[in-house]
Amino acid sequence: MCWMGPVQHLWIVRVSCFSCMSKVFFGALAPTRMFCCLQIKPLGFLKPISLRKVPGRFQTHQNSLPRLPVPPLQQTLDHYLQILQPIVSEEEWNNTKQLVEEFRGSGGVGERLQKSLERRARKTENWLSEWWLKTAYLQYRQPVVIHSSPGLVLPKQDFVDSQGQLRETLPVEYLGGKPLCMNQYYQILSSCRIPGPKQDSVINFSKTTKPPMHITVVHNFQFFELDVYHSDGTPLTSDQIFIQLEKIWNSSLQTNKEPIGILTTNHRNTWAKAYTNLIKDKTNKASVRSIQKSIFTVCLDAPMPRVSDDIYKSRVAGQMLHGGGSKQNSGNRWFDKTLQFIVAEDGSCGLVYEHAAAEGPPIVALLDHIVEFSKKPELVRSPMIPLPMPKKLRFNISPEIKSDIEKAKQNLNIMVQDLDLTVLVFHHFGKNFPKSEKMSPDGFIQMALQLAYYRIYGHTCSTYESASLRMFHLGRTDTIRSNSIDSFRFVKAMDDSNSTEQMKVELLRKAVLTHRSYTDKAIRGEAIDRHLLGLKLQAIEDLVSIPEIFMDTSYAIAMHFNLSTSQVPAKTDCVMCFGPVVPDGYGVCYNPMAEHINFVVSAYNSCAETNAARLAHYLEKALLDMRTLLQEHPRAKL
Ligand code: COA
């Protein structure tokens, strides 16, 4: 399958650590030319296809994708009333029903907004994408750390010495079989979020006439510009990159006193002010620009403090999400950078990415590809030629900047302390078990989450699961409402002595089917959440007053996602993680493998009612109970 884009070029290096001979790899995707995946070859054999030779193929593919539809108004409103049933009181529901009836009436405000929305859909490439980018990301003012940027944990590497850290890692692209929108892939590299006073922006430098030729490397809070191309446009070999990384490593043995990168962890308005101040200085401006333009960042982290084996994985998840705080590796990041690969001296590795540009699947596809690639035969070693020392990026720290860094450190450390993370490797079974029961594995896992939550709290909650809209041109996500009337019936029955085991089995099967059918609706662009958001934003744009259904308690409850969940499947045995989206909620990300499932559960310590380890424990129990239920009550063979 071809991966085509306007200005992208992949190079991959696969090497072995000379000392331990373990298979490790380094890869990079540089935005200089485009290529076809099938032609990816070890470095030196790569034959990039010039964009000029295949003009417009990416665009042709993109244009062949359907446009995101605006779902029928009545369908969305009916479904909205349904999803409210298990989460609001009868009185609230009756009140909301009345508001919905007024809204949907012929010639009413709902109809007018729907027509405006349909007009918008005719005039734009995707009626939602720009609104979504702004609302969900660029106008969101909480720090990107924990609140927005997901981390990804890779299996630990056993380095025998510091060379391992320099030779280890990372990206590259993989494309699945479906004709999905590929736009996100072209937003990942050479791009960076830029703070603004009310709204941020994202700049993608790969589209410039002179695309970047360097990556950023950070070690001991010191930033370096590492050219990964020679002046003739040929990429550096793996050995050459290794030598360059070693030079960086050796010249930054002392930790920088001022972890400038910490500034990027701040509340966006605060960071925007500090940013304006920071780049008043010419040297600072040039250094910041170099980081922003670079293809991606490689963070060479110090080892984490030693912890017991049972909490090690959870600590690594924290390391990937936030860097562990100002005394650990948080200063070794530029959190606005879209893609940052993290390789620590102790072998923990993964990545963190800024979410505005893309969802998790394209990011893990990059990883899957390089992991696959690394299994291919060894490269021929290339001759060594002298290369200049990578440029150190310097910063002049005025007293004002120093004070901004101090404040950012304090805020970050509070956030880090507040985050409660648990990694659960559920090893009893993976997606093969639900498949063998002819059930959707995703639906099965979501029902286990519903059951776990219900068993802890005795009620159900608004649940968000990301659904991909990439079947549509410039599609991002919509929401699968995993809690439904059917899921509620199932979780209530599960511990109810009045329910027979056979009833429980039927209710579980029905709940999973309902979930799968809503998933199908969501990926076809017919879920309710983005449509309701669109109607609300349309009201704002049309300067009509916000309709009452959006000012209603039920709407607030529906949008308060105590469970914010996402499946990010990968072939690699890794798992993504993110923070909860509400103060009293959980974030749950999972990667269902064939025979086991990786989960990361997050919560906030400041909320007395939530506890990530407890939810993980109940989740494990729910999955096991559901398996037992199905195994002890097999379906009658027809
Ligand atoms: N019987 C047997 N097998 C079944 C089945 C059934 N009833 N239903 C599904 N399966 C199989 C599927 O064919 C699939 O097989 P595969 O492993 O060979 O591919 C597998 O089980 C998984 O299917 P399912 O669990 O139903 O989920 P999915 O792969 O369709 O994914 C979503 C569902 C919602 C995760 C996906 O549609 C999606 O939108 N992903 C993007 C999410 C996203 O963007 N996350 C990132 C946010 S940052």
Automatic annotation (TrEMBL):
Active site residues per record: H355
Keywords annotated in UniProt: Acetylation, Acyltransferase, Endoplasmic reticulum, Fatty acid metabolism, Lipid metabolism, Membrane, Mitochondrion, Mitochondrion inner membrane, Peroxisome, Transferase, Transport
MF (Gene Ontology): carnitine O-acetyltransferase activity; carnitine O-octanoyltransferase activity
GO cellular component: endoplasmic reticulum; mitochondrial inner membrane; peroxisome
Record note on quaternary structure: Monomer.
Function: Catalyzes the reversible transfer of acyl groups from carnitine to coenzyme A (CoA) and regulates the acyl-CoA/CoA ratio. Also plays a crucial role in the transport of fatty acids for beta-oxidation. Responsible for the synthesis of short- and branched-chain acylcarnitines. Active towards some branched-chain amino acid oxidation pathway (BCAAO) intermediates. Trans-2-enoyl-CoAs and 2-methylacyl-CoAs are poor substrates.
Protein name: Carnitine O-acetyltransferase
